[in-house]
Amino acid sequence: MTSRPSWQKPAIPFPRLILILSLCSAFAPFATDMYLPAFSQLVNHFQTDAGHIETTVSFFFLGLSVGQILYGPLIDRFGRRKPMLAGIAVFLLATFGCLLVTDINTFIGLRLLQAIGGCCGMIIGRAIVSDLFAQHEMARVMSSLMIVMSMAPICAPLIGGWIVTHYDWQAVFFALLLLGTICGLAVYFGLPETKPPHITASGNLLRGYLTLLQRPAYLVPALSGSLTQSCMFGFITGSPFVFLHHFGLNEQQYSWVFGCITFAFIISAQLTKMALRRYSPKQIFSTALLANSAFGLMLYAVTQTPHMWLFIIPLWLTIATLSFLGATSTALAMSNAGDHTGSASGLIGLLQFGCGFIASSVIAASQNGTPYPMTITIAACGLLGTLLWFSGSCRRSAELSARG
């Protein structure tokens, strides 16, 4: 780790740091994925249709996006611990509210609030890593986080499927309350303040965002990575219909298939750590983008196949590229954030979940009884992210050549 002058970084045991940040970052995948097997129960409970239930996913992504804007300047001004604890409290209150309501629109609103509280772990976790590590170390730490965090989207639907099979959908939200309580206690007792004293929010809360939006070295990897991460949001939103209705799986079978596909995260996160020993984040990011686009096109090509495993193979490979892309794009962007680390982390989250909300909404609005809404969205997100990155790289190369 590198040290800034006149400031001593807090000594946090690495395993404890990874465990606490991973737990807090697991709010989003657990709150998103654990209740997916309960979609049929939610339709019956709220006396509504599948489109409204899919909207509860879309609005959760919207809440994750909105929350990033709020936390960015706050954590530069008030530090990391207090906003983290406040976000966990909001998450717990909204989760409890979800258990009490009977109106679907109120439930959707509480899901939005739940996401705003729950996103604190992701954005503040990125800022803490940026506080403590340099770029190459940061990419390795992010990949270590992803190994642990990748267990969440695997375990969440499996746990949710088991809970829904033996109890009901409300038990899922009781489990989320338990998770939130554990995370709050872990942060309160085990995570010291890490914000360097020289980092302060400006009087104008938008100034940091405006500065970053005018900095291509930050914006291009952040937006390109966010577009490709939308492949996961498309998968989360579209997969219940594709596997439960199109391929005819039951809730427990769907949970296992979902876990099998997201297991790609664990493998690729470990491979990312190994690759970073030999290659730069930029090299890995560029290669993973090309792979993501190729696998996304393969998935689109097999959309109409009646063979589920032929469909799963390119989907699995597409999801596998996202660990490479997430760790390296974050490291590339955050290393060019300057003193706006909190705002930079918030803007990355805004871009990721904003793109995810758009992808999720497109799938929900274009549902036509086939897997096409999901496969087209996944392929398009990967292609757009790849085109943005390489066009931005070509432009920077041309500018450097002109200066030379």
UniProtKB/TrEMBL annotation:
Q: Where are the transmembrane segments?
A: 55-72, 84-102, 108-129, 141-163, 169-191, 217-242, 254-272, 284-302, 308-334, 346-366, 372-390
> Which InterPro entries does its entry note?
Efflux_drug-R_Bcr/CmlA, MFS, MFS_dom, MFS_trans_sf
- Localization (cell): Cell inner membrane; Cell membrane
Highest taxon, organism lineage: Bacteria
Occurrences of domain Major facilitator superfamily (MFS) profile (ranges): 17-397
Q: What is its main location?
A: membrane
- State the organism named in the record: Tolumonas osonensis
Q: Could you identify this protein by its name?
A: Bcr/CflA family efflux transporter
Keywords on this record? Cell inner membrane, Cell membrane, Membrane, Transmembrane, Transmembrane helix, Transport
Concerning its family, UniProt says: Belongs to the major facilitator superfamily. Bcr/CmlA family.
Biological process per Gene Ontology, one example term: xenobiotic detoxification by transmembrane export across the plasma membrane
Q: In what way does this protein cross or attach to the membrane?
A: Multi-pass membrane protein
Which GO-annotated molecular functions does the record name? sodium:proton antiporter activity; xenobiotic transmembrane transporter activity
Give me the Gene Ontology terms describing cellular component.
plasma membrane
